[in-house]
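We modelled the chain as a single entity of 87 amino acids. Its sequence is:
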Amino acid sequence: MFVDFRALLVWLLAYAVAICGCIILFGVILNSLLIRQSLRHDVHSTTMALAVVPFLLSLLYMVCWFIVLVLWKKIKRRHNRVFECVE
């Protein structure tokens, strides 16, 4: 079984960027809703709850990232072993 470790590393880096993007998006949405609430007082509480969606998505990405990282380390460790047949 051949596993391209560079592809997995690129995937892990891309997911790390996606996690950071989701956290930034959460902050931007929450900040803009709080500013609008303080200025116009027209933001409903369910609208505020929608700001949690990017945060939950980042948590899901973190769980996936951690699972893939653990599996990648396990496969890499197994792949680095050398087996010999001695006759």
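As a brief sanity check on the tokenised model: The chain has a mean pLDDT of 86. The chain has one domain: 5-79.
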